[in-house]
Amino acid sequence: MTAAAESTVAFEGRFARELTELAVPWQAEEAPDPELLVLNDSLAEELGLAPDYLRTPEGVRLLLGNYVPPGATPVAQAYAGHQFGGYSPLLGDGRALLLGELVGDGGRLRDVHLKGSGRTPFARAGDGRAVIGPMLREYLVSEAMHALAIPTTRALAVVATGRPVRRDTMLPGAVLARVASSHLRVGSFQYARATENMDLLRRLADHAISRHHPGAARSEHPYLALFEAVVAAQADLVAKWMLVGFVHGVMNTDNMTISGETIDYGPCAFMDAFDPAAVYSSIDVGGRYAYANQPVVAEWNLARLAEAMLPLFNEDQEQAVGPAVEALGKFRGQYSDAWFNGMKAKIGLPAGLAGTPEGDAASDLVDGVIGLLKDGPVDYTRFFRNLGQAARGNSRTVRGMVLDLAAFDAWAERWTALKPDAELMDSVNPAYIPRNHLVEEALAAATEGDLGPFNRMLEAVRSPFREREGLERYTEGPPEDFGKYLTFCGT
Predict the structure, then answer these.
(1) Is 111 a catalytic residue?
(2) Same-domain pairing of 146 and 263
(3) pLDDT, tens digit, for every residue of 293-312?
């Protein structure tokens, strides 16, 4: 595609067309002096967008929402949500716009969505803008999650607007263009239910089935099957978060997708030292969304989805409750199976074998390794990576990471007797994650105009399982003076 072929950018307007009650037509704020900071070339190509075109002045304006191709219908999406447990009947895209959907590789429909594009009718007291640091954080962490094979929204580009934005100080403004299977959320269903418009609720569910869980359409009870599919997807997703030590930080119901993708990388972080109570959000003062609470909160959020969908399960609410409770009740088993199988892979043991002596031994070893991690400040990512060396016969490094050497030796003797697979371990235990101290270093430099540290870190985390010379600092934990780490949502 060239600059003269811009008409081939053809956004679908399926969400805006099918769910008009949830879509407010809107335009992005004009950027005074745009500059493309980072572009995801491979993702652009998946979407049928030529990177060379996106680097032209018109392509950059497209990524800001300032150029709207013919036929496109940018909208701000309406949704409700429980935020830190408190229900808000109307939230919506306060600083975001859905440009529309693109048909990418394999005919897959994907949203292109802007963040930081200016005030919308849902902005409340916010200015609708974003700044460079948090937008680059979402780009970096979402690409790391994708490389870790964790379902996620993807970052297409970050564009500086040339407009200073007031936060604690004046900071350079930016817009993130991100891509998702859709932006349907638990909060979308909560909003539809609150309107008491059963036709809207049904159309929303049909839209979700069509885009994400088409198998539900063949079920005798398609809407219950849709709910079951979301429960299963979220159980698998949160298990994957836990396995890599990821803390989302803001698991409100408006941040839980129907697709099962991770969304909204605001106050998020990867654990350094293993800590079940780890919290990295500056506003999560009660630890509601702490690391160990994530499965519990996910189940709670899914209960809110069940409440919103009850009329679709059965017109008689009393008869609807039983199937909903039964479907939700599968979450814990699905999550537990996904997490335990993932942990077995992390220590080099095959999944399954439940009910066999080998399976029981593997489960005991999983419990044992968590006990070792809890016993002292052990770097979560490095421990498992170094454990791969122990599977090859060199246990000195990982042994030196724990406090109770006798407990480690006893555990390791039982573990090595099962002949752990070192290659399996290296395929699931990353060498590189977005280390918090290095993320802050990269974002601070980028805010001052130097994208070098950001690009080098991005290179490391995009191939997290393959160690390379020259990237040793990206495997290391924080310096002693780094202190307690907190992140902010950027609004």
Answers:
(1) no
(2) no
(3) 999 999 999 999 999 999 99
